[in-house]
Design goal:
This protein is an alpha+beta fold. Helices cover 54% and strands 11% of the residues. It folds into three domains: 130 residues, 2-Layer Sandwich (Nucleotidyltransferase, domain 5), CATH 3.30.420; 95 residues; 124 residues, no CATH class.
């Protein structure tokens, strides 16, 4: 059977090799699709030595359990490319005592574009990528973290939809010479807004139906956004670990929830700089040859979380906190507000690492800043949710305050620099 080798032998001795390959009996590459999967059983410790023992092509996905019991052993390592259902398949295999790993799709995608491709070749290539160590392993979230990520992504999606519909409506009105008054509340005061729109121009019946349709879309999107916002606020209030994050400057319930959902297990980051790199707040640059130097924090890391931390840093820079004073001094020296905001976001990420690892100082009182955050969070919970929980706004606030005072707070020192511990020989 023909098995193309996209990895030259010269690359085998470089990069990060998988130590487990010396003890692994076989590596099984899985090219999974929504309805089927192809498995390539490989033997060998390096891509050059590896040979295909057997290939199972287009096996129905509902037969994965029976196939794994029959053709795979606990000593085998099964590797998948990160895709929509890869985490689900890893959990299915883990329940069968079968070891499965997910590999980052970036490198595998480049190999796919550079070589002929079908399901059999892809399965072989995934296995050889693991043997070569060129594809990074992706952390598989635990069920709670995965569910929180689903919530967060659902909220982000509906926020984008609400913004798109609102912009479409404003654009349609602008095309007909209508500009809404500043402060017009299209959703919170629908009857008043509709009356103002009706009187703003001489609309034909068809034009008015278009406006009504977009208003319906906007209200539906906003209802969904309020729904997810309420659930997220309730989740933060009920989880002391998430609730502790709102004590940091610039961090409210949504950012605290996003940190918990995307970071997950903080123990997978041995030091703060690894979390900074994961988020993508470490500067990357290209200074090769005589070309112009280019640098910045875009293009790598978790963009969804990084954008929220940048927003938090902008809020901090407008405050009177010690970190804001540090950021303003940096702004005065460098003359770049983007650089100062990114630096503050990195400091905030380091503080998140210490806080999530339990390195705190005692919280003595709930000051005015934190009290205001709690009020906003309870507003996000909403009256309907409070009623279903059987609590008044004041009772809910007391519960949250008690939870905060039992925990601890991390005091962010903007002048503290992280120095890694010396590694043992």
């Amino acid at each position: 059977m023909y098995s193309p080798d996209p990895f030259p032998s010269a690359c085998i001795t470089k990069g990060k090799m998988n130590d487990q390959t010396n003890t692994v009996e076989r590596v099984i590459g899985l090219d999974a699709h929504p309805d089927s999967f192809t498995a390539a059983v490989m033997r060998g410790r390096t891509p050059a030595e590896a040979w295909s023992e057997k290939v199972f092509n287009k096996v129905p996905l509902n037969q994965l359990k029976s196939w794994a019991r029959k053709h795979a052993t606990p000593k085998d390592v099964m590797v998948l490319e990160a895709s929509g259902n890869s985490f689900h398949l890893v959990r299915i295999l883990a329940a069968l005592d079968r070891r499965a790993l997910v590999l980052e799709s970036t490198q595998l995608g480049k190999l796919k574009e550079a070589h002929a491709n079908n399901d059999k070749i892809s399965a072989v290539r995934i296995a050889k990528a693991y043997l070569a160590g060129t594809a990074k392993e992706v952390w598989v979230p635990d069920p709670q973290t995965q569910e929180r990520r689903d919530w967060f992504h659902a909220h982000q999606k509906v926020v984008r939809r609400s913004t798109q519909v609102r912009n479409r409506l404003l654009s349609y009105l602008s095309d007909h010479g209508v500009r809404l008054k500043k402060g017009t509340r299209l959703v919170l005061e629908p009857e008043l807004a509709e009356q103002q729109l009706r009187q703003s121009a001489d609309w034909s019946p068809r034009q008015w139906q278009v406006i009504q349709g977009m208003l319906m879309e906007l209200r539906h999107a906003e209802e969904q956004r309020w729904h997810w916002r309420s659930l997220i606020a309730q989740e933060v209030a009920a989880d002391p670990a998430l609730l502790s994050l709102i004590r940091l400057y610039g961090v409210r319930d949504l950012i605290a929830f996003a940190l918990g959902a995307i970071i997950g297990d903080i123990q997978r980051f041995a030091e703060p700089r690894k979390l900074v790199k994961y988020v993508g707040l470490n500067p990357a640059f290209d200074a090769s040859g005589e070309g112009k130097w280019e640098g910045g924090i875009g293009g790598h890391g978790r963009k969804d979380l990084r954008s929220l931390l940048i927003e938090a840093a902008q809020s901090i820079l407008r405050s009177r906190s010690p970190l804001a004073q540090w950021g303003k001094k940096l702004l005065g020296r460098k003359g770049s507000i983007k650089l100062a905001v990114a630096a503050i976001a990195r400091k905030l990420t380091v503080a998140v690492w210490y806080l999530m690892n339990g390195r705190w100082t005692p919280l003595r009182e709930i000051d005015q800043r934190l009290s205001q955050k709690l009020s906003i969070m309870i507003t996000h919970v909403g009256a309907a949710a409070l009623q279903s929980l059987g609590a008044t706004r004041q009772q809910f606030r007391q519960r949250v305050c008690q939870s905060l005072q039992k925990a601890r707070d991390y005091v962010l020192d903007p002048h503290r620099k992280f120095t890694p511990k010396p590694q043992r020989p």
